[in-house]
Amino acid sequence: MPPELVRDVLAEERRIAEERRIAAGEAAESLAPRPSTASGELRALEAGLDRLQTAPAEREPWWRRAARGILPPIILLVVLLAVWQAYTVIAQPRPDLYPGPLDVLASVGSAWDTGRLQLAVGTSLERGIVGFLIAAAIGTPIGLLLAESRPLQRAFGPFVSGLQVLPSVAWVPAAIIWFGLSDATVYFVILMGAVPSIVNGLVAGVRQVPPQLRRVGRVLGANRAELAALVVLPAALPGYLAGLKQGWAFSWRSLMAAEIIATGGSIGFGLGALLDQGRQLADLSAVFVAILAILFIGILVELAVFAPLERALLRRRGLLPAGGAR
Amino acid sequence: MTVTAIRLAGVGKRFGGPRSPLVLDGIDLDVAEGEFVCLLGASGCGKSTLLNLVAGLEAPTTGSIEVPGDGAAVMFQESALMPWLTARRNVELALRLRGVPRPGRRGEAERLLELVNLADAAEQRPHELSGGMRQRVALARALAQDRTVLLMDEPFAALDAITRDLLHEELERVWRETGRTILFVTHNVHEAVRLAQRIVLLSSRPGRVAGEWRTDAPGLDAQSVAREITERLRKEIASNAA
Ligand SMILES: Nc1ncnc2c1ncn2[C@@H]1O[C@H](COP(=O)(O)OP(=O)(O)O)[C@@H](O)[C@H]1O
Ligand SMILES: [Mg+2]
Q1: Does residue B220 sit at the A interface (CB-CB below 8 Å)?
Q2: CATH 3.40.50.300-classified regions of chain B
Q3: Which of A39, A189, B26, B119 is deepest in the core (most CB within 10 A)?
């Protein structure tokens, strides 16, 4: 049934393609270019189609984007403060139990004047950042190792996930016994809190790399190292960044827990200590100052560091709607 | 007189142990240098499997496969471009992995993008390109590998008919200009007749060569060949109903 095969007919018959092109047309192909399309005409057609099928991405000016992101929470904050102040004025609760916004503001002023606030923020922020960087330096290679080795991943995966669930405060007593009241205790607790998140983020990021991209890498001739450096890691970057972001949140939380529990010794005066000091003096306004400072720094790092990084990363990959709204 | 670029002899493939179903069985296929062959078959008949075997992404269970020493370039149905790289950098990645030194990469990538009429889109990322443009970048990337053999796995299947037709023309032009050997997989009879010099029909379960047609003979009636192949393909598919 198959027609006879002519083995050696080659290139010179290619022009016959033109007849075929007319005859073989599908319905929609009647719209298609005539077979005799000159190369220049093909280019024009193609360029026209490209134009029709792509919409020029319109980018909002940065200030409008910023305004849209920053304005709503600020408005909400102002409203909340107003309600709080109104409550204090109208209901007149005991100021030592329910301080109003103005009392807290006064406390901020006095903590600032004595330099305690700056000292606490400086100490905590420095430790938080250093601890986070150490956690990233430890978590990244571990994550890579686990991501690339199935057996290791099976063995260690549950432990890493378990560590992520375990509140890192639980390590404080052990850390105090091992390291005393020193920076080592604080860093240890930060690491136990942040490393698992970073490891998990990286493993998840690598696992989500489309297999097709790896295959392309192999087809293009990448060896193992090139595949990891040029394909897998860049493709896993969003997951890795998400892990880092969560790692920072865990660092900051663990640091506060450690600072509140472990005070004195060679542990400096951080925000946790400021908080604890307020508690000992039964000065609720001072306690609120510390809480607000902790919250504020957490939000600031998220907004100033991770959010722009994440947005840039996702926009490059077309994973954000144009205009950058989130 | 013609030189063989790809030679498959008795190629069989199963995924898994000897009890798993035979996907491909006893495939014999020679593709001459510079030839354009379409591999035609119903969905799931093993076309992609066969292409992956030729690409070296999988090993055959039985039989032997000969490809040129430098291997083959591959283009997939999804463009599979790196989403974080611009069109130009995607092409440059292929050049880099081929071992082209850095200074020459940019110019070469721009030349290849020009070849697929995408010089203006060089600095755009895949998500900013239309499906047809992405496939042309993928074609430029495959050409950047500079291998004599180009394997294509339903590269235009996801495109609309107008775009697909333009890309047929584009591919034919590129083939003529670069003299590549092309093994093109499709389930579309019209596409096969439109592009190929020779069409190889695969049966399903297991995949065997069920027929071959030359479609470049002078004075050939393309429409009747297409009809004949379609009929044969339908018979193949219907035989699986029993
Ligand atoms: N990696 C795999 N493991 C197991 N079965 C597979 C694998 N790849 C393909 N198959 C099977 O081989 C058959 C042919 O698949 P494929 O080559 O993708 O078909 P086609 O490309 O012609 O649509 C299918 O039945 C599919 O389920
Ligand atoms: Mg397929």
Answers
A1: yes
A2: 1-71+148-242
A3: A189
